[in-house]
C-alpha cells in the first residue's frame, strides 16, 4: 500500500513514516504544499496523510485542487486546529477522515488501514477468500488454516492483490505500489516475488492473466 505523508515538521513526518512503515505501508514524504499538490495529482497512491498547516500552499487549498482535478485518493487530514468548524471545512473540501493533533499513532494507523480497505470496497480487516485468509491489521496470511511465513514485501504484494481481487492488476501498477518512484526496479524483481509467493502458497492462488496482469484466485 503506497502512501504519501505531507507534513512540514521533520520530527512528526519521521514518526509517521515509522508508524505506517511498520504497518506495511510504502511511505513517501513531502514537506510543502506545492510539491504535495503535484505528486498527489500525478502519482498513484493508496492513501495520503495531509497536514493543513503547510508552507508555500496550505493543505486545504491542496485538497480542494486535488478533488477539483479528479484525484480520488483517500485523504486523512491532520491539523493542530481543533475547532469543529475547521473540521467541517476539511471534510467539505474532500477529506475522507480527520485527526486533530495531538493523536495516538495507533489510532492513525487504524484509520489509515480502514480508509484503504473502504476505498477498495473491502471493509473487513480480515479478507476471507476461501482457502486463503489475509489479515490486513496483523499482516499475516493463512492458507487452509496454516500460517504462511511471508516477508514484508511478499505480504504487501499479496495484500494489494487481495484488495483488488476483482480485476487483474497490471505489473506496472504492482511495481508502483511495491517500490514507489524507484525506477531501478524492473519487472524481473516483481516476477521473483510472485514466484516466491507461488512456492509458499502453492498453485491456483495467484493467476497470470496474460496481457493484463496478476489476480488472486482463491476459492470463494
UniProtKB/TrEMBL annotation:
Spell out the coiled coil positions from the record. Answer: none
Q: Write down the superkingdom of origin.
A: Bacteria
Which UniProt keyword terms apply here? DNA-binding, Phosphoprotein, Transcription, Transcription regulation, Two-component regulatory system
Q: Which CDD domains match?
A: REC_OmpR_EcPhoP-like (cd19934), trans_reg_C (cd00383)
* Pfam families in the cross-refs: Response_reg, Trans_reg_C
A GO BP entry: regulation of DNA-templated transcription
Q: Which residues carry this modification: 4-aspartylphosphate?
A: 51
What Gene Ontology terms describe where this protein resides (cellular component)?
A: cytosol; protein-DNA complex
Q: Where is the Response regulatory domain?
A: 2-116
Q: Which is one GO molecular function term here?
A: phosphorelay response regulator activity
The UniProt annotation gives the DNA-binding region as 124-218
What residue stretches are annotated with the OmpR/PhoB-type domain? 124-218
Q: What's the name of the protein? A: DNA-binding response OmpR family regulator
